[in-house]
């Protein structure tokens, strides 16, 4: 259908994006790869010789490695579960007729505009602090001992903070999807006397499947990289050290760039395996 | 005003001595602590006198460390003056990354700087960073609560005295915790405190062959004692409490005792911020019965010039201004003697006006009692009291700190925490090629 | 026609939705409220809600200490610049993928997304060294480029999904009328794609504004945006909740206001091809 001319024009238009991203990917990746085979300790003068796969072996055999992968999966999985589930419910609710719909929407999406550092700081200090946080005041007013959020429920705390930030995003995408749902179809089902739950399972959920996969894909990309929320709250203590955070500790705290770079390469590989899996699903959905 | 004038005069002289008189701009990276904020607000005087403009990069401690370390290790050249501590100074100086401060003029009076501070900020006998304020650690306690409990705090307490006082002052119903100490993970947070406790129990990080020693009985005894103190008499959520959280608690009257940096003395006795300002007493950091090593540390926040700075002369002028005797007088004139950055100069402690401040004497005694070269009973291959001055320490300290923090949170026993810390320290040291 | 709804049901919806909305918004509201309190009121137990002596003291202190307007200006330049630059590159790319698809289009798209998988901390050293070489440290242009590259995949993908929904027949018709490539884009596609472009722009501004790793690590004084401004209030000595709240409010207010005004646009536009 398209002419030869428009094909080459199309390539020309695609080229800048592809070249830039290729550069953005290849240059740092190559340098990271090179570092990962070196003993590279900036505080001891930098390059100290080639060490083969030593950094790679050291990184995975460290006792911190598997717990960090686990922490990453739990945080990403937990946030996805909360944001998608609540996002669907919230989207359905916001689609219903009500007074002040616009205002409610504004309230719901607001957390998405808050920068991660600020949200981490606000939650940590003003809500979760066991002595002066609002939640501890609340618990005490009921005569209960306040929960020590960041140490006794560290994972839950991080998941809550991150979910709070990302719930608006999930809700927005799911809401647009629901709004496109053919209301006549729903009405017909309602007329037939189909119960609410069955309408949800058989009409709404299938309609949302595509939107849900997209929410999962995009959020996963961002969630794998979360850093600020952990840095300002637990600093990786109490089992909240994700893979990203572990790499941060190796590179910036221990100043072992070789070891950290090997960790970076692992992270890329793991993330891509995960992404490939996800993209298969989304890719299928894109074709539909 | 008179003082401002003389400052102007002295720095103007220095300016003539320096080369170009064109408008320069220095970029200064510093911590968001109160004394530094005050320096920023007073720095207009410096600019007025010298025509040198200042750009301030004021960051929270952790981010600041990360930024300046990254920049100096890559010769990024982003800063003309960096605020660093006793830990970084000798390591960076050894690499040749810092400009020697030998160029400071004679009237700067280097000999006036407290010997412990000068030693901690020197490498090979040359000073590479000028102390902006210095600190040791000491016991701060509530005199009213001690009195109510019918006890008296000795000036030189032992750990047994501390434990007994903590037990007596703890009053959970009234939200009063016998003792507040650091539990938050970090080499500059809980590990600073735990390491001093360990020192006073005769434990050490490494033996002379750089082998980690956290599996020693001394460490177990020290860590168990620390853990018991916090579990029995500490505030809720102690595992998340660092310097600042404890400061807030103490100011709110929720701690019977607080063992921490000597600089905190001026905050807890300041009636504007502290509800207990008029009932705070001070004592030396404790030792263990029978052992002659007190658990006090030594630290200074200091100003240094990275070798990559293009404006070293101007930077030297600024350091000369900010760490001078005249600066101390300037602060005293504007904000009172209690707010002067402490712990740097002998002349400050000889000044009768300053010596009359309740915590001045105890601060000086604490600083003088600290010896970075012999931090504990047994000999060690490293320098540093509450830290080990090797590049790997920041990583080691923080990760070990996380294990101890998990212990305070009740997630593991002292034995488990020490075993895991020992394993990871050994790991890191191996990775660094020891 | 609209579904008939009883008043009761509408009331119930309204009630539940408002409760949830206020709950989600509460942390922000609390931060704003706290910013007008004294430090002592900020940690008071029981908490003080609305009836206290509102004070602007915290804002005065923050303003006195930091040059807020410069941080703000840097944030605007960097977020705005990276968005404009990104759109210039992303629109043609998305256009060509949507209207002249080849059998590799999907792979390219997915590959683009995968470039976002590289953990930033892992490549900090390489990027820092490159920035030193190019003299880009602490420059707005350097940061603009990095943020543009970080968000480019998302932009391309978002635009692609909008463009794909524009029926091809319209293009055919335009070509029949003798429209060239330029006219096609300028007069036919762009107007139809405006809603999609607008929401892409919005999302990108939000993401760039809130980015807190590169903006902190690649700047010092001159190019530092609001994320660095926050880092100087995050845990100082002494009581700081009220001042932190004031600084936080100042950092998020501009983007919050922008978001509120464009809320309709975002709600309509944030689909990522989720709607068929």
What does this structure look like?
The complex is a heterotrimer of chains A (288), B (434) and C (276). Chain A is 75% helix and 3% strand. With 288 residues, chain A is mainly α. Chain A is globular and about 75 Å long. The two termini of chain A are 21 Å apart. Chain B folds into two domains: 2-128 and 299-355, Periplasmic binding protein-like II (D-Maltodextrin-Binding Protein, domain 2, 3-Layer(aba) Sandwich), CATH 3.40.190; 137-297 and 379-431, Periplasmic binding protein-like II (D-Maltodextrin-Binding Protein, domain 2), CATH 3.40.190. Chain B has 19 helices and nine strands. With 434 residues, chain B is of the alpha+beta class. In chain B, a hairpin with a 2-residue loop joins β4 (122-123) and β5 (126-127). In chain B, α1 packs across α3 (44-50). Chain C folds into two domains: 7-60, no CATH class; 67-232, MetI-like (MetI-like fold), CATH 1.10.3720.10. The mean pLDDT of chain C is 86. Chain C is mostly helical and 276 residues long. Chain C has helices at 7-34, 39-42, 57-65, 68-99, 105-114, 124-134, 140-165, 168-176, 181-210, 214-217, 226-231, 241-261, 263-269. The B-C interface holds B 27, 29, 32-34, 37, 40-41, 55-61, 63, 66-67, 70-71, 74-79, 242-244, 247-248, 251-252, 267, 273 and C 39, 43, 64-66, 124-125, 128-129, 132, 137-138, 216-217, 220-222, 224, 228, 231-240.
Q: Gist?
A:
The complex is a heterotrimer of chains A (288), B (434) and C (276). With 288 residues, chain A is mainly alpha-helical.
Task: Give the helices and strands, then pairings.
The complex is a heterotrimer of chains A (about 290), B (about 425) and C (about 280).
Chain A: H1 4-36, E1 38-41, E2 46-50, H2 54-61, H3 65-95, H4 101-109, H5 116-127, H6 134-141, H7 149-152, H8 154-179, H9 183-191, H10 196-223, H11 228-232, H12 243-253, H13 257-287
Antiparallel strand pairs in A: 1-2
Helix pairs in contact in A: 1-13, 2-13, 3-8, 3-10, 3-12, 8-10, 9-10, 10-13, 12-13
Chain B: H1 2-17, E1 24-31, H2 34-42, H3 44-50, E2 52-59, H4 61-73, E3 81-85, H5 88-95, H6 115-120, E4 122-123, E5 126-127, E6 130-142, H7 143-148, H8 159-169, H9 190-200, H10 217-233, H11 243-251, E7 257-261, H12 264-268, E8 280-284, E9 298-304, H13 312-322, H14 325-335, H15 346-350, H16 352-355, H17 360-369, H18 393-408, H19 414-431
Parallel strand pairs in B: 1-2, 1-3
Antiparallel strand pairs in B: 3-9, 4-5, 6-7, 6-8, 6-9
Chain C: H1 7-34, H2 39-42, H3 57-65, H4 68-99, H5 105-114, H6 124-134, H7 140-165, H8 168-176, H9 181-210, H10 214-217, H11 226-231, H12 241-261, H13 263-269
Helix pairs in contact in C: 1-12, 3-12, 4-7, 4-9, 5-7, 7-9, 9-13
